[in-house]
Amino acid sequence: MRATFAVLAKDLRLELRTFETLPAMVLFSLSTFVIFHFALGRSAVGGQLAAGILTVTLLFAALLGAGRLFVAEREQGGFDAFLLAPVDRTSLLAAKAAAMFLFLALLEVVAVPAFGVLLLGPALGPRLPGLIAVLALADLALAVIGTLVSAIAIHTRARDMISPIIGLPLLLPALIASARAAAPVFSVHGSGAPPGKWLLILALYDVVFALIAYAVFDFLLED
Amino acid sequence: MVDQDQQPAIELRGLTRRFGERAALNNVTVQVPTGTTLAVLGRNGAGKSTLLRILATLLRPHGGEVSVLGERLPQRAHVVRSRVGLLGHEPLLYRDLSGRENLHYHAQLHCVAPERVERLIEAVGMGKRADDPVRALSRGMVQRLAVCRAVLHEPAVLLLDEPRANLDPAAVELIEPLIGSGNGHTRVLTSHDPGAAIEDADLVLGLRDGKAAFVRQPGEVGAQQLRELYG
Predict the structure, then answer these.
(1) Given an 8 Å threshold on Cβ–Cβ distance, is A80 in contact with B90?
(2) Does a structural domain hold residue B1?
(3) What's the Cα-to-Cα distance from B61 to each of B19, B26, B124, B218, rounded to whole Å?
(4) Does B149 reach chain A within 8 Å, measured CB to CB?
């Protein structure tokens, strides 16, 4: 835990110094909402369409952020520095996934209200608790898989292409589950509560990929 | 002179490491007794940095046996890590963090008390610039911070790749108490200045194309050996 907190604190400090990741994710999401607003030619969407737009936008924003996760480690010797320390290597995975989760949560603080203003038909306020539950589980999947994919891609020359090529298929089940879970939340006539079945699927997916990431991460750091 | 009865701190037997088809190190055998200094000489690409990275547990050997402080690598790498310090070509410092922030980060990873960071910063004369981002510092200053990072956890074995690179004489004097031969460390050092390295060493390993060209006492390394090594 000590090493995880040390790496996480260092990453957050670096982000505060450079603003390289989070602002890009936020700008990307806002731009995408504006594009959808004009491309669909509708001032308000709801239900499955709204859920799809939000989850797809967050997915691509997450991939954008994941691509930056290990850049400082690669370019400034952070990998070597970490590997020289007598710490559990999975603490790097935990720290990076936690940083990614925080970035996504902060992104959503800005992006979800913007989505509500630019695209969403039904009022967001009463639907927030359900939406937060869906987004928290979706963010966990995005953070864990994004970190795993980024750790694989960072060692390749074509890392900007590798991340989406590997990440999108892996994240597809999470995207489907989160979009289906969010659809009733955005429905004008629905209950506003996300269906338990899709939340459970999303949670199971989080657990499975957290275990897979824990099992393989050591090997990704080998020379 | 090397005391042959001492337990070797570092022992290589037939060490081989390949990058693809190319053998960066090929059947290298050498023993480094505790508390002594091994100078590794050779041309660019001879395998010096690869040797240091294997001893630092950053690379796995592909053949032969390697032990550091009695622990076999790579099997016992997790034990060795806390007892070796690497000063390589790269400072392993984040450019957008200050020197102090970088060292405190490494101190946390190595379970080192924050007070040691402050003592080291003062020891290398970086007290006034320790809060500047690393990217704003001169190469010499960065190298001084890199020395602090390498010795932060008081390692028993120091792996020094061109340790005096970018340093002026005054800075060399400042870092000498930390990485010099007088403080009981076992050291493996590489240098492109063979004369200085031999003067600093108890044993000299000459590497040519990844193979050990010679392992000799410093007094036995003459102009002829160096010509053959670098020629």
Answers:
(1) yes
(2) no
(3) 11, 10, 34, 27
(4) yes
Q: Which of A182, A98, A191 has its CA nearest to residue A146?
A: A98
Q: Match 């190298």 to its residue by tokens.
A: B143
Average pLDDT, chain A: 92
CATH number at residue B14: 3.40.50.300
**A21 vs B: CB within 8 A:** no
pTM for the model stands at 0.90
pLDDT in tens, B201-217: 999 999 999 999 999 99
Do the chains contact at B106 and A85, CB–CB below 8 Å? yes
Domain count, chain B: 1
- Domain that residue B27 falls in: 8-230
Q: How many CB pairs under 8 A join A and B?
A: 70
Tell me the per-residue pLDDT of B180-197, one tens digit each, with 9 for 90 and over: 887 789 999 998 888 888
Residues of the domain holding A80: 2-220
The answer to whether A184 and A134 have CB atoms below 8 angstroms apart is no
